[in-house]
Write a structure and sequence with these properties.
single chain; alpha/beta; Rossmann fold; eight-stranded mixed beta sheet; 10 helices; 14% strand
């Protein structure tokens, strides 16, 4: 199988050509307001913990329709801007979406005595099994962003038998497929700001979760943690049974599993991503059913494009919509979503950017 899929060229917004501007705009540039109207499900896990998922079912959705399962990145949750935007666009196109909160995140706060990390592919598998029970006739696309981009690629590569048969496609957006290399690439003044931001957010999250569930291990570092490597070496590695950050990275990085992926898979990455170094993808061996599309610009989960290409400037969102709604079973090229359909989606969500 040789996967063919049309990905249009990304042209950054004229005022957002810098990789950091793209990354920050992707998070902070207003992207519409989407009132929460999901059904909350709590999914028990094999070790006694639980995760939460948020089920948005469009009006008129049929049991044999399309479904997308979305998983957020590091320090995110179901309400992260990219999660709400993409879910809204998919819902407007008639796709039922499930936004997963990883352990301790969002509505999952207090439900777990163990923290989440990039290798917890079993958690995603448990969510997929739950969704399969609800939507046994639906075609499911699994979408992971950043840290969870790594997680979903690891899942479908290492254990295809754990993936329900109706998971027909996978997408990984800016996936950190070599965790150690990504963490060690955070050098320079701006990258260190990202580094410390994530450490602060994770420490804050753990302390808040411990107030709800005292079984979650406390952070006991011999010195102040200033980097993600420190956090993973002092907390993630020991607490999650890896022993050290290096062991965690070696065990959980998806790059080693990608060659075994059997589902049609789209990997979207940017050369100028300040958090996921493009070196992760050098020399990567890809099976014919995996398409790696690398753009020169886009930053990390940014992809704020010039106007006139899509109904709004969120190029990344529309490519995910294209992928989820494309028919790959007919063989040959999978057509891009028609402009008329995209305009209907845009009107339905009333997104201003």
């Amino acid at each position: 199988m040789s996967l063919q899929f049309n990905v249009p060229r990304f042209e950054p917004h004229p005022l957002l050509r810098n990789r950091h501007a793209q990354t920050l705009a992707g998070t902070y540039l207003p992207g519409g307001r989407y009132p929460y109207a999901a059904t909350l499900h709590k999914i028990p896990l094999a070790d006694g913990d639980a995760v939460a998922i948020h089920d948005d079912t469009p009006t008129g959705w049929s049991p044999n329709g399309r479904v997308a399962v979305l998983i957020h990145g590091l320090a995110g949750c179901h309400s992260s801007p990219y999660m709400t935007r993409v879910a809204a666009k998919l819902n407007a196109a008639g796709v039922r979406t499930f936004r997963m909160d990883m352990r301790g995140c969002g509505a999952g706060a207090g439900l777990s005595s163990r923290p989440y990390h990039a290798g917890r592919s079993d958690d995603a598998a448990a969510v997929l099994r739950f969704v399969e029970q609800l939507c046994s006739k639906a075609a499911i696309t699994l979408v992971g962003f950043s840290l969870s981009g790594n997680l979903v690629l690891k899942l479908v590569g290492e254990a295809s038998q754990a993936v329900p048969a109706n998971v027909v496609k996978v997408a990984a957006i800016c996936p950190a497929i070599e965790l150690g290399r990504c963490v060690r690439s955070l050098v320079g003044p701006v990258q260190r700001m990202y580094d410390r931001y994530f450490v602060r957010e994770l420490c804050h999250q753990i302390r808040g979760n411990r107030e709800l569930n005292a079984d979650l291990p406390a952070i006991q570092a011999p010195r102040r943690m200033k980097s993600m490597f420190d956090f993973d070496d002092f907390y993630t590695g020991p607490v999650c049974g890896f022993g050290s950050a290096d062991n965690y990275y070696a065990s959980s990085s998806a790059r080693q599993y990608i060659e075994q992926i059997r589902q049609p898979t789209l990997i979207l990455a940017a050369e100028d991503d300040p958090l996921v170094t493009i070196k992760c993808f050098e020399g990567l061996r890809l099976p014919g059913n995996v398409l790696l599309h690398i753009t020169p610009h886009g930053g990390h989960l940014g992809y704020v494009g010039k106007r006139g290409v899509d109904p709004d400037s969120r190029w990344m969102d529309w490519r995910i919509l294209d992928w989820v709604t494309a028919d790959l079973e007919s063989g040959g090229d999978s057509p891009r979503q028609s402009p008329a359909s995209a305009e209907r989606v845009n009107r339905a969500i009333s997104s201003p950017t």
